[in-house]
Specification:
Helices cover about 50% and strands about 15% of the residues. It has about 300 residues and is α+β, with helices and mostly antiparallel strands. Among the domains are: about 5-70, lambda repressor-like DNA-binding domains (434 Repressor (Amino-terminal Domain)), CATH 1.10.260; about 190-305, no CATH class. Strand 2 (about 195-200) and strand 3 (about 205-210) form a beta hairpin.
Length: about 300
């Protein structure tokens, strides 16, 4: 056990907390809390989580987290993940630009002949249509005048019938639109997500969803982060995304889609809140606390279903 771990454990015991109690308060898994006390940081999901978990542990047992991190900074592993990712991205960018430029040039040379052939075919079709129209007008002009009179009379009657049909259809369409407007006026209202309420546990923000029949959650991962999604009973929700597994690290570009319809509430836990965005029925949740204020966040959405 390290000196930092001993100090945290002593503060926990002085508060009368067991590891199970502390797990409930901080929402950090018990095995991670035990690893912090023993100084066994290798079991953590990533080096950049070590400082965040230690900070939450310290605040939960009444210690000054900033002073504690500064005093024992020699025991805590440095966070090199973000630096390595940035350096790798900077090295890869020039090669990616060159590759994209080559693909764009090759693509242009591939589709230009196809466009020319398509235009040539369109011109031929237009010429054939024009000739057919011209020949048809000449044939009509050569017919006897008596036939023209009959045709004109028939056309007048036909047009009269068409006018009646059009008028009837217009009236029917007008009535249908009135019914539709009535339905739109008295139908379901748009969904509304309340402004987040910051809870006293220093990591949880609660929102309320109203005016919606569906309750679909999407998490877009913007960088390395740990994600956990549970319902009001603390049960992991099954996901439409094959990549989703409970309590797992995710990387930039991953998207987790879950249908929580029928649930009273959902809690989305982001290990690194700066690296994740939460959407409800396609609408993005605005964090009440910035990632700088709360590194790890619990986003709780309560659902009041439209009857």
């Amino acid at each position: 056990m390290t000196e930092l771990g001993a100090r945290l454990k002593e503060a926990r015991m002085s508060k009368g907390y067991s590891l199970d109690d502390l797990q409930e308060i901080t929402k950090i898994q018990k095995r991670y809390l035990s690893a912090i006390e023993e100084g066994n940081y290798s079991v953590m999901p990533g080096s950049f989580y070590v400082r965040a978990f230690i900070k939450q542990y310290a605040e939960a047992v009444g210690l000054d987290s900033n002073e504690l991190l500064e005093t024992f900074k020699g025991e805590i592993p440095a966070n090199k993940t973000v630096e390595n990712v940035t350096a790798t991205a900077n090295i890869q960018q020039p090669n990616q630009r060159r590759s994209l430029t080559k693909k764009a040039t090759k693509g242009s040379s591939d589709w230009m002949p196809k466009v020319i052939v398509a235009l040539f075919i369109i011109i031929i079709i237009a010429a054939i249509w024009f000739l057919n129209q011209h020949n048809s007008s000449n044939d009509v002009a050569d017919e006897p005048k008596q036939q023209d009179v009959k045709v004109e009379s028939t056309n007048v009657q036909t047009n009269s019938n068409k006018d009646k049909l059009v008028q009837g259809k217009t009236v029917a369409d007008s009535k249908a639109k009135q019914v539709q407007v009535s339905k739109d006026t008295t139908g379901k209202s748009k969904q509304k997500i309340s402004k987040g309420t910051l809870e006293n546990d220093s990591v949880t923000t609660t929102y309320t969803l109203t005016g919606a029949k569906d309750f679909k959650i999407k998490v877009k991962v913007l960088g390395s982060t740990w994600v956990g999604i549970q319902d009001e009973n603390g049960t992991e929700i099954s996901s439409e995304s094959k990549i989703y597994k409970p309590d797992q690290m995710y990387n930039n570009g991953d998207e987790l889609d879950l249908d929580a319809t029928g649930k009273k509430s959902v809690r989305v836990r982001l290990g690194a809140s700066a690296n994740g965005s939460v959407y409800v029925n396609g609408e993005k949740i605005k964090f009440a606390a910035t990632p700088a204020e709360r590194y790890t966040q619990n986003i709780v959405i309560k659902f009041e279903e439209v009857k």
